[in-house]
Amino acid sequence: MKRRELRVGIVLVGLIVAMALVSFVWTPFSPTAVNSTLPLQPPGWPHVLGSDHMGIDTLSRIMVGARSALYVGVIAVGLAAVVGVPLGVASASLPRWAAEVVLRITDITYAFPALLLAILLAGALGASTETAMVAIGIASVPQFLRIARAGAMSVLASDFVLAAKASGTTRLRIAVLHVLPNIAPLIGVQVSVSFALAILAEAALSYLGLGTPSTVPSWGRMLGDAQTYLFTQPAQAIWPGLSIALTVLGFNLVGDGLRDVLDPQLREVA
Amino acid sequence: MSLFEVRGLRRVYRSSRQDVIALESLDLTVHAGQRLGIVGESGSGKSTLVRLMAALDRPTAGTVMFDGLPVTGVPERRLGFLRSRVQMVFQDPRGSLDPRMRARDIVAEPLVSPIVRRELGEFDRAQRVREVLDEVGLPPDAGDRYPHEFSGGQRQRIAIARALAPNPDVLIADEAVSALDVSVRAQVLNLLMRLVDDRGLTLIFVSHDLSVVRHLCPDAVVLQAGRIVEAGPTSALFSQPSHEYTARLVAAIPRFRSRL
């Protein structure tokens, strides 16, 4: 039952990744070439998904847009994991007052809306894919920190950590050799869920004009552009919207599926 | 010669509701080569006591000395003398072996630590791991496998092999056979006995099961509510328990023959 969800998720994510990879070597048309004689074409031939208000082939833009979405997801989630996981693991072995300080700072970060942070950063540094990634990454740190901390606490309470201490293993080695491998499945689930959120956030930022610049194809930007022509050519809004929805669904299904597949093992560990 | 000197040991677990006194002004001496049983019902402070002796916990008050050197109040990096000579086997090997490590790395863990290595001198690590795996009766390919690929008894053998790896003088077994099936228990007990004999180990054997302690340890102390209520030769504890609590523990041992 749950395995089927995982499989569907993997297929969806696989399709998006394949599309992004193919776009590096082949797209039906140039994703940036303007063709003013054929604007706002309905789906058909040769523009399978139609064309936008500047006559750019929509399928090509969708394919290249997958690149932006995955790029932002990888960097933002990577940033969040690289900052959040070590902090979470470290906070699990800190004395209680120090852990409290870390956790309260985490709460403050968590309470601060990601979108607002992105607008702030875009205002200070200029809107770009990079500022969007950093903003989304910072906003995702608290989830990683909390998950890593909770997992680390349960691993640190286990007898094999006690045995490691009795063997003279240092705290750093315990964190690297025992804690990290045992919380890796938890982190994997969080990566998948955060990836979905990051892609959604990037689309929202690009839609608002605070993310990927208009010269680079991105799904959020396409949605924004299509809005103006919603009543003349609604298909132009449907394709990027569907891409975002399917990608987010795919990563969420993978996350949920992984959680259910890995949970029994985790319980046995704890 | 006394190896462990425990003086006035006290351990209080603080919690928001009320403090729990796990150990109260406890004195204990363990001699080199002694086989000492520590018995008592669950919650009597047995595990707390041996964890403090192995410097895995800090006492609220009191001191532990090992071979003339203080163990309590000493930073971890200066405990090499203890870590290399005192090793522990825990109750449940499912919990005491990291599920994501191969048996080889689990057994090698005490040999990797810098503070332990400083005490041990030169040796071939892979060779040592093979030797101890063989010594506890595991097949030569056992090192490549993960804990879940072994049976319960074999897992406890891995835990014992890990404890033996640095060639310790003292083995602390904390309920080391209690989680095992009855059929496997005897095998592991015999293995422990053989190893203690062959290596001339000092054994501190914690158990709630008096019959197992009688089998293994000539001497025993009885713990109740964090205090030693009786100590002496195990045979005397059995035949003439002077404390009412010991008598109850002895009476609690199932005796099949009398029922038949």
TrEMBL record, chain A:
Keyword annotations: Cell membrane, Membrane, Transmembrane, Transmembrane helix, Transport
Topology in the lipid bilayer: Multi-pass membrane protein
A GO biological-process term: transmembrane transport
GO cellular component, one term: plasma membrane
One Pfam family recorded for the sequence: BPD_transp_1
Chief location: membrane
Subcellular location: Cell membrane
Official protein name in the record: Peptide ABC transporter permease
Record family assignment: Belongs to the binding-protein-dependent transport system permease family.
Domain of life (superkingdom): Bacteria
Residue intervals passing through the bilayer: 7-29, 69-89, 101-127
InterPro entries: BP-dependent_transpt_permease, MetI-like, MetI-like_sf
Taxonomic lineage from the root: Bacteria, Bacillati, Actinomycetota, Actinomycetes, Propionibacteriales
Family matches, as CDD domains: TM_PBP2
UniProt domain ABC transmembrane type-1: residue ranges: 66-255
From TrEMBL, chain B:
TM helices/strands, residue ranges: none
GO biological process: transmembrane transport
Alphabetical keyword list: ATP-binding, Nucleotide-binding, Transport
ABC transporter domain boundaries: 4-250
InterPro entries assigned: AAA+_ATPase (IPR003593), ABC_transp_ATP-bind (IPR050319), ABC_transporter-like_ATP-bd (IPR003439), ABC_transporter-like_CS (IPR017871), P-loop_NTPase (IPR027417)
MF annotations from Gene Ontology: ATP binding; ATP hydrolysis activity
One Pfam family from the record: ABC_tran
Matching PROSITE patterns: ABC_TRANSPORTER_1, ABC_TRANSPORTER_2
The family this protein is said to belong to: Belongs to the ABC transporter superfamily.
The protein's name: Peptide ABC transporter ATP-binding protein
Organism: Propioniciclava flava
